[in-house]
Amino acid sequence: MTGTTKKGLLWAMVFFLICSGCASIVSKTDYPVSIHSTPEQAAFVIKNKKGREVHRGLTPASITMKASAGFFQGESYTVVFAKEGYEEVVATLNATLDGWYVGNIIFGGLIGILIVDPATGAMWKLPDDLSVSLNETAERKNQQASLHITTLDRVPRSLRHRLVPVN
Q1: pLDDT tens figures, 75-130
Q2: Domain map (residue ranges) of the chain
Q3: Burial environment of residue 119 by CB neighbours within 10 A (0 to 12, 13 to 18, 19 or more)
Q4: Nearest-angstrom CA–CA distance, 30 and 122
C-alpha cells in the first residue's frame, strides 16, 4: 500500500467514526412490544405522550412502536385496558436510554452523542413486553356468588344428587 492509499483509508475510517452514531448502527428505532393481560381478550388502546391514539386491539398482541418522541425525547405511551366485568387498568410504557448510546464515547464521538443518535431516535429503547392483571368488578363477583332458586322439576336428574336441602 502506498502512503496516499493509507492516508485515504485512515481518513475514511475517521470520517465514518465521526459521522456515525453507535446506537444508530447497532440498535433500532422501532421496537416490537408484546401486550398481555390476565384474563386475555381485553381491549386496549395505546396513546403516545401527545395523547394521539397509535393503536387499539385485543390482548394478546405484538405491536411495533417508536421509541423516540423527537430530538433527545424518549416516547412515553399510556395503555388503557378494558374488559366487561373487570376494572379498567391504565399502564405506561416508557422509553429508556439504550446502552449502545453510551458506545458513542468510544466509537461515535460527539456527532453520534449530540446529533446522529438523538435525531434518529436510536438512543432510546422500549421494553419487550407489557403485562397487566385485571381485577373483577364487585358486580361480577356478586353475580358469580348469586343464589338461583328453581323448582325440583327443572333440575336435571343427573344433577339432583348434588342438591343440598335448605331448612
Answers
A1: 899 999 999 999 999 999 998 877 665 666 665 566 655 656 656 667 788 999 99
A2: 3-160
A3: middle
A4: 8
